[in-house]
Each structure stands twice: as C-alpha cells, then as structure tokens.
Amino acid sequence: MQPDAHYPWASGDYLEVRPNYSYADCLHDDFPARWFTLRKQALTLLDADMPPAGDTPARFNLEARDEWTIDELLAALRAGLGSEGPLAANTRRTLDTLVQRFEAGKRLYARYRGPELRGDTAADYRDLSRYVRFGEILLAAWEREACLSDLNALLKLADLLCAHVADIPPAWQARAAAVLRGEGQALRALATAKEVAWPV
C-alpha cells in the first residue's frame, strides 16, 4: 500500500525496513481515521471468501523443548490456549517471551532455541502464514485475558499484514482478514470500556 504520512507503519517492506513506533506520532487528530482507512484498504485486497488453510493439531509440551521450529511453537501455543479460562502458566510465559522477541525484531524466525526463544537470525522470516497464525494467537489471548502486551503486539502484527497484504498467499487471506477484523473489534471494545473516543 502507499505510504501515509499520518500512519507510516502499514506500508513498505515492513520485514526489511522494520519500523520504529513513537507514541508522539499517534497524537494526530486524524490518527484513528487513517488507521481505519488503511485497514479497510487491506481488507478490500484480501479474498475473505477463500477456504481457509488448516492447522496441524499440536502434540508438543511447551515445557519439554529446547529447540522449536516456529511452526511447532505456534501450534503448541494455539493448543495451549485451550478454549476458556485464563491461560496456563507455561502458555502465558511462552507467549510473553515470543511477544517480546517479536516486539524487539518485528520478525518471526523459522527456528528458536532455549527457554529465552532466541531466534535463529539466519533462518527464514518472510513466511506470512506464520504471522497470520501468530495474529490469531494474539487475538485469542487478548479476548481471554485482556493483556495489553498481546494487543500491542497484535497492532504491530496487523500493520505488518497490511504492509505485505499483496503477498499473503490465497489460502491464508481469509484468516488474515479475520485477524484484521478482530483487531478492529478489540480496539473498539477497549475504547468503549475505557470511555475513550475511537470514532471509527
């Protein structure tokens, strides 16, 4: 998508020119409207009617691995979310660590090592399906626990998806669209709960 002076994070090659976020940049009066416009543009480019890609059921114990592929880690986190109630301590801890890694580098690497989830920086990080799956996990975790670090990472993840919307494989477009719509619902619900104006 074309760069936007008042919302510069959702365009360009996000994965190579990793953006810096500044709260001062979010103080423009038209910031919510620009955010909404860019999300709407991205949604129009996604084919939400495509049959969504499926996930392989996870069979991994989050406590038992010293090395993960990102696909294994995302599958284990998804399974660890369960269906209701607060997240299990090991799921919360692992998700928090992956969120910190994503926030620091704005990438999901193909391999991670150790309990600190040190990313293998020589590994692939451009598979957009992984970012879609991570967005689903962040959204589900936010809906369950309303942890602001999950929402903060989700906002940046959604910016990444918008910046690379033309490159999202067709089989993942419906799920990417659901992540973007879920982000919007989360922001509107939070604004309502906090009695903050969010006029979009």
Fold and architecture overview:
- The structure is a single chain.
- The protein has one domain (about 10-195).
- About 50% of the residues lie in helices and about 5% in strands.
- A three-stranded antiparallel β-sheet has the order 1-2-3.
- It is globular, with a radius of gyration of 16 Å.
- By secondary structure, it is mainly alpha-helical.
- α4 (about 130-145) runs antiparallel to α5.
- β2 and β3 form a beta hairpin.
- It starts with about 30 loop residues before the first helix and ends in a 6-residue tail after the last helix.
- It has helices spanning about 30-45, 70-80, 90-105, 130-145, 150-165, 170-195, and strands at about 65-70, 110-115, 120.
- The longest helix has 25 residues, at about 170-195.
Keywords:
single chain, 3-stranded antiparallel sheet, mainly alpha, globular, 4% strand, 200 residues, 6 helices
The oligomerization state is single chain
Helical content class: 40-55%
Q: What gyration radius follows from the Cα positions, in whole Å?
A: 16 Å
Low-confidence stretches: none
Integer tally of domains:
1
Structural class: mainly alpha
Overall, the morphology is globular
N to C succession of SSEs = HEHHEEHHH
Element layout with pairings:
Elements: H1 31-45, E1 67-69, H2 70-81, H3 89-105, E2 111-113, E3 118-119, H4 128-145, H5 148-163, H6 170-194
Antiparallel strand pairs: 1-2, 2-3
Helix pairs in contact: 1-5, 1-6, 2-4, 3-5, 4-5, 4-6, 5-6
